[in-house]
Amino acid sequence: MRNMAGNPIYIQVEPRNVNFINRIMEGYEYLGVVSTLDRSTGVLVIRATPDTAGEVREILAHLPIAVRYIDRIE
Rounded to two decimals, what is the model's pTM? Predict the structure, then answer.
C-alpha cells in the first residue's frame, strides 16, 4: 500500500457533500484517502501521495459542487 502521509489536502464542502467526496475518491481507485475532520462543517482531509496529489486536485476542480481549500486544522 502507498504511503499516504505525504500530501494531505484540506478542503471544506457543504456537509451534505461529505459522502459524495468520499465516493468520488473511492471511484478513482483511492487516489487519496478521505477522512472527515468535522462533519458538521464539512471539513475533510484527503491524504494523497506526491504522485497522486495533482490528480486529486484536478478531480476536485471539476466536481459539480463547491470545494474550498483550507489550512490544516489541528
Answer: 0.87
